[in-house]
């Protein structure tokens, strides 16, 4: 992400990366949002990450990472240090993964995952190289630091959107119904919902009926008010 193109909200992301990198004394840092449907990370911004590192990670190395997003979600972890992490991979897979890291001069990784209730929404990955000092924080201190960073993102618009989507999901709305509900809440007509979602007008009308029934609202205005309370 180009710093000159950062939105006001994402200045927080860059500041969190810079602060984490400086405090932990590591060379590289990346911020990602969590795609809970695919159980993958979507990298938003990086500082000091070697060229080609993420490309190789997404094209083969991700499945070997003991601290990958999928595995941290399964274990419901907030903090992970590769050198201390449990692993279910074979020795051959781990040699392959460590070989990949070492090819970029990386000797350890630290992951701080951020949670909202039972769902993770993002995190920071940190890369320690041979040129970096030994990690000065033990796990209890890393836990405290993770909670501090997590709290700083509570009001980030993307986090609020994710939390609103989760509340709609818990109300029984399907993924497509949630998409329609958010469009209706922004003032979209049935035809505009149909056009935006690539569905027929009849299907859009069916979604509206189901959304109203599941959320217990009787009008578009009431739906908009309901959604505003979730933000």
What is the topological layout?
Elements: H1 11-24, E1 28-35, E2 40-47, H2 53-61, H3 69-75, E3 79-81, H4 91-103, E4 106-116, E5 119-129, H5 139-152, H6 157-170, H7 175-185, H8 190-197, H9 201-215, H10 220-230
Antiparallel strand pairs: 1-2, 1-5, 3-4, 4-5
CATH class identity of the largest domain: Alpha Beta
The shape, in one word, is: elongated
What order do the helices and strands follow?
HEEHHEHEEHHHHHH
> Portion of residues in helices?
40-55%
**The biggest beta sheet, please?**
5 strands, antiparallel
The parts where pLDDT drops under 50 for at least 5 residues are none
Oligomeric state of the chains in view: single chain
How many DSSP-defined strands?
5
Whole-number average pLDDT? 90
Query: What do we call the CATH topology of the largest domain?
Result: Beta-Lactamase
Strand content: 15-25%
What is the structural class?
alpha+beta
What is the first-to-last residue Cα distance? 26 Å
Q: What is the number of helical segments per DSSP (H or I, 4+ residues)?
A: 10
Radius of gyration: 21 Å
Task: State the strand order across the main sheet.
Answer: 2-1-5-4-3
CATH architecture of the largest domain: 2-Layer Sandwich
What is the CATH superfamily of the largest domain? GAF domain
Keywords: DNA-binding, Transcription, Transcription regulation
GO biological process, one term: regulation of DNA-templated transcription
Organism: Pseudomonas panipatensis
GO molecular function: DNA binding
């Amino acid at each position: 992400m180009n710093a000159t193109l950062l939105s006001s909200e994402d200045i927080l992301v860059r500041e969190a990366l810079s602060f984490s990198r400086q405090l932990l004394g590591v060379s590289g840092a990346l911020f990602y949002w969590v795609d809970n449907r695919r159980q993958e990370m979507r990298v938003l911004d990086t500082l000091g990450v070697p060229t080609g590192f993420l490309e190789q990670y997404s094209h083969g190395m991700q499945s070997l990472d003991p601290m990958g997003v999928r595995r941290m979600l399964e274990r419901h972890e907030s903090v992970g240090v590769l050198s201390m992490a449990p692993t279910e991979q074979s020795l051959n897979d781990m040699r392959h993964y460590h070989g990949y890291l070492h090819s970029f001069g990386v000797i350890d990784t630290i992951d701080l995952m951020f949670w909202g209730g039972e769902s993770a929404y993002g995190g920071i990955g940190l890369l320690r190289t041979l040129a970096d000092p030994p990690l000065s924080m033990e796990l209890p201190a890393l836990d405290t630091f993770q909670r501090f960073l997590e709290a700083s993102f509570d009001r980030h618009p993307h986090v609020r959107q994710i939390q609103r989507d989760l509340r709609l999901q818990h109300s029984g709305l399907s993924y497509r119904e949630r998409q329609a509900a958010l469009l209706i809440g922004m003032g979209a007509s049935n035809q505009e919902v149909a056009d935006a979602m690539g569905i027929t007008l009849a299907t859009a009308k069916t979604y509206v009926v189901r959304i109203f029934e599941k959320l217990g609202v009787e009008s578009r205005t009431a739906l908009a008010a309901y959604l505003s309370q979730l933000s």
